[in-house]
Model the fold of this input.
Amino acid sequence: MATAVYPGTFDPVTHGHLDILRRATQVFSHVVVATTEVPQKQCLFTLEERLAQLLQAVEGLPNVEVQSFSGMLVDFVRSIGASVIIRGLRETTDFEYEFQMALMNKRIAPEIETVFFVTALDYLYLSSSLVTDIALRGGDISAFVPTFVEDAIMQKLGKG
Ligand code: ADP
Done:
């Protein structure tokens, strides 16, 4: 079975991401969660922090590895001998962006397939940026992220 790469910013990793990842491990024999610097986004956490959080979040998940990459995603996918990119879909707004990315990646690397997992209903409205926004306003984010991520967000926002 194929090795798949689940790329993302994961700033920070949420239960929505982890649900997609768990389901992906049931379909693919090996899943590499991959994160990267995102110059066009202002991230709450550094690449090193996001990597460390991902490593902790995937503890106990079989056949999952965490890596960071720089440059083009398709080059990274090729370099580790993977053939699938996994992405999650929430609503139609995700769809437009994801559709464009998938087609562009297909154009650049025709041998790589993008596979979409549709969000679980519970996580339909869950995004990293919304979690950070709720935390900033003093809301309870415990249902949306692992406890250690909640602690890291509070500390980062000076609310710990
Ligand atoms: P990116 O900046 O690459 O979009 P994200 O960390 O925001 O990185 O998301 C990584 C992937 O996970 C994307 O495909 C996104 O659509 C998906 N995703 C994020 N949150 C959820 C969620 N709640 N349910 C399903 N998929 C999600």
Remarks:
- The longest helix spans residues 92-108.
- The chain has one domain: 3-124.
- The beta strands are 3-8, 30-36, 64-69, 84-89, 113-118.
- The mean pLDDT is 95.
